[in-house]
Amino acid sequence: MWFTELPYQTITSFQDFSNKCVEQFVISHNLDEKNAHGYFYQRTPNKSVQQVLVHRRINIMGEIQLRAT
After folding, report:
1. What is the top-level taxon of the source organism (predicted)?
2. Which residues 6+ apart lie within 8 Å of 14 measured at CB?
3. So what's the pLDDT on residue 51?
4. Distance between CA atoms of 22 and 29, rounded to whole angstroms?
5. Is 8 exposed, middle or buried (0-12, 13-18, 19+ CB in 10 A)?
6. Which of 2, 41, 47, 54 is most buried by its number of CB atoms within 10 A?
């Protein structure tokens, strides 16, 4: 499944999110726990680099969730 098609993901850390959702294509990100959004920089299959906006929310259970748009 391509990164931008994923729904909100419940995570334990931002590294966990990048491992689950982007696998080897993540090269860096500037999203931190204090911000509601940030960017992942992912390397696409044809080796170009794409910037993806990521939104953060806290669900009703208090879990951090992220999704790419």
Report:
1. Eukaryota
2. 29, 31, 32, 33, 66
3. 67
4. 11
5. middle
6. 54
DSSP 12: S
Express each pLDDT in 20-36 by its tens digit: 554 433 333 444 555 55
DSSP assigned state of 22: T
Query: What's the pLDDT score for residue 27?
Result: 34
Q: Return the closest-CA partner of residue 18 out of 49, 36, 39.
A: 39
Domains of the chain, by residue range, sit at 3-68
Q: Are 28 and 6 in contact (CB under 8 A)?
A: no
Query: What is this structure's pTM?
Result: 0.39
